TrEMBL record:
Residue ranges that the Swiss-Prot or TrEMBL entry lists as coiled coil: none
GO-annotated molecular function: alpha-glucuronidase activity; xylan alpha-1,2-glucuronosidase activity
GO CC list: extracellular region
Occurrences of domain Glycosyl hydrolase family 67 catalytic (ranges): 109-452
InterPro entries listed in its UniProt record: A-glucoronidase_C_sf, GH, Glyco_hydro_67_C, Glyco_hydro_67_cat
Gene3D superfamilies the UniProt entry points to: Alpha-glucuronidase, C-terminal domain, Glycosidases
Protein name listed in UniProt: Alpha-glucuronidase
BP GO annotations: xylan catabolic process
Top-level division of the source organism's lineage: Bacteria
SUPFAM superfamilies: (Trans)glycosidases
Domain Glycosyl hydrolase family 67 C-terminal: from-to ranges: 453-676
Pfam families: Glyco_hydro_67C (PF07477), Glyco_hydro_67M (PF07488)
The organism of origin for this protein: Bifidobacterium oedipodis
């Protein structure tokens, strides 16, 4: 049976006590859903007499302080009674879940709230055969056989049976939609952006009718459904000889296809597109630009209010390691900066938060600050592709919050981050031709495992992403406390404290025992779990560390390196250009330095590497010891699941420690200052 995660109906019902609900306002799919949540999910009384109610849910023409249809107001009315007011059924749904959250966490139930980001999206990398690219929690909740939960990672996308690809587990999908709506998620893409084989047919019959059933369910929770499409669909599905975005037959085919989709799914969100990247087809093969391709699709969707989300993850995946002038980090800027202002109003560019690929530490992707006339959706990865595969505990909110709080230093803004208008979260939300089409998106970490996320503690990242999207001012500890209070409602404060400490330290611990000081990767090729220091060093993916006997790191300066630094605004570029002003945690991303180079901490680069890699396994051993103290205080399945994962994490941390330390010792022949064991 699937875990209820942070929405445990029995616990919520007990916390609400004798609550009696009343709902007024015009009915739509969302207000009907609120009624069903009260009566069917919570099994609480819903009265038709407002005087009998202790909580009134009201859809009103105007609500003081609320300007968005997604916003709500919770306030006292009389005799201890509460009102949850909104101007729209979607806002009422969010207000309902916010009230439940406040009761469960013991926080103040008086607020006016609106989302900080307009698009708050989960992207599923699900294949229609049921497998998930970079999935670590079992098979897809959308696709596959009802009784199947294969954990294989079919990275090569083999042809497998997709005769009837839809799993059809609508009880599971309803639970998922409820969980997502409760944290403010309002968009979900069902399928992988690498659209292969029969997945291309999701936008046409007979698969489209099946998508409609999912979309209707999600719509009742205020979630718009998106589909990833293959840019070559006019050739593969329409029988055309070309997919050139400037060809009139191609444009007509996409318009007709969009019309057919919206006839069945009026609330359809639109298309997500990966084009001209890692072998996927796109407009460049016809001599066209990304703007040409995106705008052609935008034209087809515009009459229906749909949008195109065009991924900026475009780079040369056939790089020659011998050529140091080529730098993968520069690719997004080089491919898209000159197109700024050329994308249609209903096109959004989805940009990864860093210039590489969801590493443990990256600088801000300069494209986010540099695209001043384009809608931007900032992309994150909840699934732990490079962050421990949901085996290693890694509560990643500290990293994400650092990224959205980063000062872009554009438009003459301050360097000390006191000008909120230049922070990433503000840039995303308030700049672009149509800010309704901007926001945050993240790759999902859920699957068919009973606990949804492989490691029960990885649920905190899913919860945290949604809460971060809605309220950009929350900090990592507040989000963790919310999740803990709702997920372990019967746990003692001591138990909560133990789990909280593991979560809040885990991101730094994982970063410490993996690739050092922002250099990135050093992972096992293909799998991306476990160490392989030189695994990608002579490969085609552009993921190099350039370690030699004298030093380590990638020179990206303008003076002597790849010139990547020049993509930042001048004052930011000046910080990264100078080895002495570059933050320690990003040193090896921007500079190739000697092992004796002194960090701001006073340690040499080499000793820092030794220290952090010895500290990692020690910290994980501490987690294992602490976790033993929660035995009997959390559900047995949760205890066993996390205990097993922590044991695996210790093995991983030890492997990283020994391989990384030995690698750099062999390079330098310099021993650890503290005499700890390094294998020669």
């Amino acid at each position: 049976m699937a875990d209820a995660m942070w929405l445990k109906a029995d616990s919520i019902r007990a916390a609400l006590g004798e609550t009696v609900w009343y709902l007024e306002g015009d009915e739509d799919a969302r207000t009907i859903r609120v009624r069903r949540e009260i009566v069917e999910f919570l099994r609480q009384p819903l009265t038709g007499n407002a005087d009998e109610a202790t909580v009134l849910l009201r859809v009103l023409q105007t609500v003081p302080g609320v300007t968005s249809p997604q916003g709500y107001r919770i306030h006292d009315i009389s005799n201890g009674r509460k009102a949850i007011d909104a101007c729209d059924g979607t806002g009422l749904l969010y207000g309902f879940y916010a009230y439940v959250r406040a009761v469960m966490t013991g926080t103040v139930c008086e607020c006016v709230a609106e989302p900080d980001q307009q698009i708050r999206m989960i992207d599923h990398w699900d294949q229609i055969d049921g497998s998930i690219e970079r999935g670590y929690a079992g098979e897809s909740i959308f696709f596959g056989r009802m009784d199947s939960n294969d954990h294989s990672d079919f990275r090569a996308f083999p042809e497998r049976d997709t005769t009837n690809p839809f799993r059809g587990d609508f009880a599971r999908l309803e639970s998922y939609a409820r969980l997502m709506a409760s944290i403010g998620i309002n968009a979900v893409c069902l399928n992988n952006v690498n659209v292969r084989g029969d997945a291309t047919r999701l936008i046409v019959e007979p698969f489209l009718s099946k998508v409609t059933h999912i979309a209707d369910l999600f719509d009742s929770f205020g979630i718009r459904t998106f589909l990833a499409i293959n840019f070559a669909s006019p050739k593969r599905l329409g029988g055309l000889s070309t997919s050139d975005p400037c060809n009139q037959q191609v444009r007509a085919w996409w318009a007709q296809t969009a019309d057919a989709i919206y006839r069945q799914i009026p609330a359809f969100g639109g298309f997500v597109v990966k084009a001209d990247s890692e072998g996927e087809p796109g407009p460049m093969q016809y001599g066209r630009t990304h703007a040409d391709g995106a705008n052609m699709l935008g034209e087809a969707l515009a009459p229906h209010g749909g949008i195109v989300i065009w991924r900026a993850f475009v780079y040369n995946s056939q790089q020659d390691w011998r050529d140091r002038s080529t730098d993968r980090a520069k690719a997004a800027w080089n491919n898209f900066k000159e197109l700024d202002g050329l994308f249609a109003d209903n096109v959004a560019l989805q940009v990864k938060f860093g210039p590489m690929d969801f590493q443990t530490r990256e600088p801000l992707n300069p494209l986010i600050g540099g695209m001043k006339h384009t809608n931007i959706i900032m992309e994150f990865e909840i699934t732990a592709e490079y962050l421990g595969h949901q085996i290693d505990v890694n509560y990643v909110l500290p990293q994400w919050l650092t990224m959205i709080d980063t000062d872009t230093m554009i438009d003459g803004a301050s360097t000390d981050n006191d000008d909120a208008s230049s922070q990433v979260k503000s840039i995303i939300a308030h700049r672009g031709p149509n800010t309704c089409h901007t926001g945050f998106a993240a790759v999902s970490n859920v699957g068919m495992d009973d606990n949804w996320t492989g490691n029960a503690l990885a649920q905190a990242n899913l919860y945290g992403f949604g809460r971060m999207c809605w309220d950009n001012t929350l900090n990592a500890e507040t989000i963790a406390n919310e999740w803990l209070a709702q997920t372990f409602p019967d746990a003692s404060e001591k138990t909560i404290g133990i789990i909280r400490n593991i979560l809040l330290t885990s991101n730094a611990v994982y970063e410490g025992y993996t690739a050092p000081l922002g250099v990135g990767f050093m992972v096992t090729p293909g799998v991306h779990y476990g160490p392989s220091v030189n695994g990608y060093e002579y490969d085609r993916w552009g993921t190099y560390h350039f370690a030699d006997r004298d030093g380590v790191g990638v020179d990206r300066t303008q003076a002597t390196g790849s010139g990547y630094v020049a993509q930042y605004p001048p004052r930011q570029a000046a910080i990264y250009e100078d080895v002495n002003s570059t933050p320690d945690e990003l040193l090896l991303f921007f500079h190739h330095v000697g092992y004796e180079h002194r960090l701001h901490s006073g340690k040499t680069v080499l000793q820092h590497i030794y220290d952090t890699h010895f500290a990692g396994p020690e910290a994980v051993q501490g987690y294992i010891k602490s976790w033993e103290n929660v035995r009997g205080q959390v559900p047995e399945a949760v205890f066993d699941n996390v205990a097993q994962r922590l044991a695996q994490q210790l093995d991983n941390a030890v492997a990283w420690r020994d391989q990384v330390n030995t690698f750099f010792y062999r390079m330098t022949k310099v021993p650890d200052e503290h005499g700890r064991t390094i294998y020669p």
